[in-house]
Amino acid sequence: MKAFIALFAGLAVSAAAHAAEPLLTPQQLQSILPNAQVRVIDIRDPQSYAQNHIPGAVNAPYGQWRGPASSPGELPPLTKLAELVQALGLDPSVHAVVVSKGTDATDFGAAARVYWTLKLLGLKELSLLNGGVQSWAQAGLPQDTATVAVTPTTWQPVFDTTLLATKDQVVQHVKQGSSLLIDARPANFFNGETRAPTATVPGTLPGAVNVQHDTWFNKGSGVFVSPDQARQIAASQPVDPSKETVSFCNTGHWAATNWFALSEVLGQPNVKLYPGSMAEWSQDPNALPMANVPSRVDQLLIDAKMWANRTFN
Predict the structure, then answer these.
(1) How far is the C-alpha of 59 from the C-alpha of 41, rounded, in Å?
(2) According to the model, what pLDDT value does residue 16 have?
(3) Taking Cα atoms as reference points, which of 233, 283, 270 lies closest to residue 225?
(4) Which residues, in sequence order, are bridge partners of residue 180?
């Protein structure tokens, strides 16, 4: 275990030497706010943003970064994402800090997914506010209600495909068994005991291991643990920094947290995100292979429970 932690520590030091800190405390963010090259991106809904936000923050609700309702993890077209980041005044010279509500681990996943998308588009100077707006407010730091206008850029982003695993690539990973597939979902999803509404079949990818997305947080909070604690956690999980790794979940949301933990906090190379995840995989007309798929009777019971929850809750 000590050798495993030491390997992660060395990777993290190497990665940290070339970019902004991936996680900022409220105090660290406050100290760099006067810098005109810092852009705070608040991904909360417009109503929450209008009520109170970090001074200077621009609003880009999470839904703008997502795909269609049938498979929200899929990437929007590059042209749409380019228009969005240009309107936010982003280009490679800007240090973008993504801010979410900060309520829990699932909310953190939204910030991590936007961070991943910005990095996929080619931005390097990126951070998340650890604990989101909630941590900022708890620190007693000032908030604002003013509408923020920024000068758009004409920057033309290009996808960095080294961060992306497509469905076709994952099909090959499953056939060859050479990459580590990490399922970020809670155990009941991984074990095929339930499914997301966007997935047609319960279960997981063949050969996948389960590293639940909320593993990386202070208990009961949306605050990511320290890098030292993250290394300790990684040493107890079925991860391997020597292997190419693909993180997935239902719709590429929880998976973004595992990607962020391994790639950005721990500095592991060759970590990719499969954005479409189980929604895209299970909807494929070719009936792609899956593991932990329950019997047809159990699937019908799962469907009935989901119908009851939608109808009566």
Answers:
(1) 6
(2) 45
(3) 233
(4) 245
Structure token pair of residue 209: 């291991």
Domain ranges of the chain: 2-157, 162-312
Domains 2-157 and 162-312 share a fold: yes
Q: Which of 140, 142, 96, 129 is nearest to 223 (CA)?
A: 129
Confidence class of residue 2 from pLDDT cuts 50, 70 and 90?
A: low
168: helix, strand or coil: helix
100 has a pLDDT exceeding 70: yes
Assigned CATH for 162-312: 3.40.250.10
CB 270 within 8 A of CB 245: yes
Report the residue count for the chain. 313
β-strands 209-210, 38-42 pairing: unpaired
* DSSP class of 104: S
* 101 touches 133 (CB < 8 A): yes
Range from 2-6, 77-81, 171-175, 205-209 carrying the lowest mean pLDDT? 2-6
Beta strands in the chain (DSSP E): 23-24, 38-42, 58-59, 95-99, 126-129, 180-183, 209-210, 245-248, 271-273
Indicate whether 3 pLDDT > 80. Answer: no
Using CA atoms, how far apart are residues 29 and 54, in angstroms rounded to an integer? 10
The 10s digit of each residue's pLDDT in 228-266 is 999 999 999 999 999 999 999 999 999 999 999 999 999
Pair 239, 181: CB distance under 8 Å: no
Helix axes 2-16, 227-235, angle to 10 degrees: 140
What fold is seen in the domain 2-157? Answer: Oxidized Rhodanese; domain 1 (3.40.250)
**Token pair for residue 274?**
């499969």
Amino acid letter at 252? G
Tokens encoding 296: 């047809």
Q: How far apart are CA 144 and CA 25, in angstroms?
A: 19
